Amino acid sequence: MESTPAPSRRAARDPQLTKGWTLGRVAGAPVILTPSWFLAAAVLTFLFAPTVRGISPGLGLGIYVVSFVFVLLLFVSVFLHEVAHALVARARGHEVTELAVTLWGGHTAYSGASRRPLDGILVSVVGPLTNLLLAALCWLAFQAQPTMSIPALLLYAAAFSNAFVGVFNLLPGLPLDGGQILESAVWAATGSRTTGTIVAGWVGRAVAVGVMAWAIGWPLLNGYAISLFTVAWAALISAFLWSGAGAAIVNGRTREAVAGLSVAALAYPAVTAPVGASVSDAVAAAQRAGAGHVVLVEADGHPVAFADPVAVAAVPPAQAPSTPVGAVAVALPPTAWVDASLRGQEMLDVVAAATRDTPVLVVTDAGRVVGLLDVSLVIQALKRARGR
Q1: What's the burial of 60, exposed, middle or buried (CB within 10 Å: 0-12/13-18/19+)?
Q2: Distance between CA atoms of residues 304 and 183, nearest Å
Q3: What are the tens digits of pLDDT across the range 199-216?
Q4: Beta pairing, strands 95-102 & 29-33
Q5: Can you give the pTM of this predicted structure?
């Protein structure tokens, strides 16, 4: 039920979709039913069956049919929760990549990070508000029922479950929707999204502990026996929340480290030389500019290759004046360039798109070639950032 913005590497051009069955499309994205949902549906069906039996004991196996209808109503509620996230995310400029219904409820994934705190608040809050609205409508319909019939029971259960889903998701801790609202609120107050993420992540861990404390403490305070079943479910939910909160904290710190990466800091200085230049001319141009790399350009200044330093060094000095530098060059595809001003996640997105055909990119500044960017250095810098 949480709305989970997909990392930028999960761009629409190459989405890594959750495994499952596609039921349709909403906001241009597939709606995926995961295999784990069937486990949740079976457990919930058997858990709700005794309640149905208490209202209509003569239904026989029909008890499980009615119980499964409740599960389907809950499925619809989760689906509408995710649809609300998806529609608002698209309205705020994101590209929705998937809506998934899972063991724990569901998630909505979309590409690109929120540009403003308000975007994160609006995308996150609509899911729980949808459930609270459904709870109110089901409650009003339940109140209109003359007796506690099967339809009345389903309406009552739908009202209660939607109210629980809405309120629980508004708890202020990641990975819940309320945590994303808190993240955006702290971001707005401090100007730092990373601070918001870390604060909401730690609050999420507190919520995880609180769930376990409630499962054990509530019955003790009220003189009831502790239910091992309730404690087991609380432990699973707490583990899910703790893991999600921890991942959010790590992602927040990684995002801050990634923001410090830049093309200008990672690129090698380079000079240009005509395609027809000799090895000696290219080497002399690089030495005059204090650069260690040479980019070969056509007459119009368009880069088409770069000189391989190892191959250049292997040319005998006596043959360097007569050896075309093109003979020791590596060709570049037309898309192998990147702007020197790029940094952070935007840089990673551009580099990822441009390096499908080459491991080296030409760095330009206002259209002028100023360097070469070895993608392996970007990968190393990214690994160091993620390891901090």
Answers
A1: exposed
A2: 46
A3: 999 999 999 999 999 999
A4: parallel
A5: 0.76
